[in-house]
Amino acid sequence: MALFVQKYGGTSVGSVERIKKVAQHIAEFYRQGHDLVVVVSAMSGVTDQLLKLASQLHPEPSEREIDVLLSTGEQTTIALLSIALHALKIPAVSLTGAQAGIITDGRHTRAKILNISPKKIKELLRLRNVVVVAGFQGQNIEGHITTLGRGGSDLTAIALAAVIHAQCCQIYTDVEGVFTADPRIVPTARKIKEISYDELLEMAASGSKVMQARSVEFAKKFKVPFEVRSSFTNAAGTIVKEEVHTMEKVVVRAVSLEPNQAKVTILGVPDKPGIAAKVFSRIAEAEINVDMIVQNISDHGLTDITFTVHKDWLKKALVALEPIVSEIGAREVRATEGIAKLSVVGIGMRSHSGVAALLFSALAEAGVNVQMISTSEIKIAVIIDEEVGKKAAQVVHDAFKLDQFV
Ligand code: ASP
Ligand code: MG
Predict the structure, then answer these.
(1) What's this model's pTM, rounded to 2 decimal places?
(2) How far apart are CA 145 and CA 402, in angstroms?
(3) pLDDT for 300-320, tens place per residue?
(4) Is 151 in the pocket of ligand 1 (CB under 6 A)?
(5) Which fold has domain 3-174?
């Protein structure tokens, strides 16, 4: 018999019918003799609805009150799921994050977990209860309710699995696992059996929305293997775990496409120390997330700096840069929208050569122009026109034969 942590996301508990299904699924595990800690999100759409209500009352609602408000979403689900389990004659007890012993720092709406004392959870498990814990929330040392950032229920599940030494951590979601590409973009994409933490992290940074990146980082740090699987089917999902040697056989594990990118180019920048520092300090002060950065070789002491941001940040970036352009003596700033980032990710890249060559050849054959390139040890990313993104993802997926091996 094993100790399971199961996490059900918002869509999996999005209606009374679905909560009943989840309860039946849990009941099966329970009746096989397993111990279960179940973490749930708010029913789908609820968190957004609550945020909307608050914004109708105040343009900048207090973050402390936002946490009190949003935590009710998950609190609703734990009670409903426990009631559904009772209807199946399964003993279940719901716990809020605070009751489950989750202590965080005081940064409301984006708190970090400091400590978990699972005494209550363990006590309830010993009495053969299913323990249903509200995801995404905790309390700070003074006892104020905190939340862990959007998508934070994943983090609750991984962190609980770590401290109670669960044998199995399952993240139930509305997709069947991690795919070699988004199947809506690349229809021949297939489910990946096993993937390393690092690959999933690179994919998350490249626009794949499978899991909250912080949760994957946490799982990596505490070596918690977990499975991402669907709550709508019984199919096995994708195991995410520490890298093992055989994983390197696969050169490229997945292709990600991130649309809605924008490019900012500062033209005619004096090529001397301190300029890039000035530009990016200003961008950082405005709390804008920069992705790729490229600087050209200089010509007559002048160079160009280009960086990409999500298109929603473009206006803010341009406003932030405006005063600095004349200050650093740059010629002009240009903005381009309608671009996308295409990335190939795989730990096998470390030990195989020719990945870049194959990627660029595939794109060239399809007539896709590469505007910017960036690499990490296990990723190559290119900026291309958004218009050709889908086609590019398909040809690259084909070129690396991602539809072929298991
Ligand atoms: N309910 C929260 C959100 O929508 C947390 C979660 O779902 O994981 O972000
Ligand atoms: Mg969610």
Answers:
(1) 0.89
(2) 45
(3) 899 999 999 999 999 999 999
(4) yes
(5) Carbamate kinase (3.40.1160)
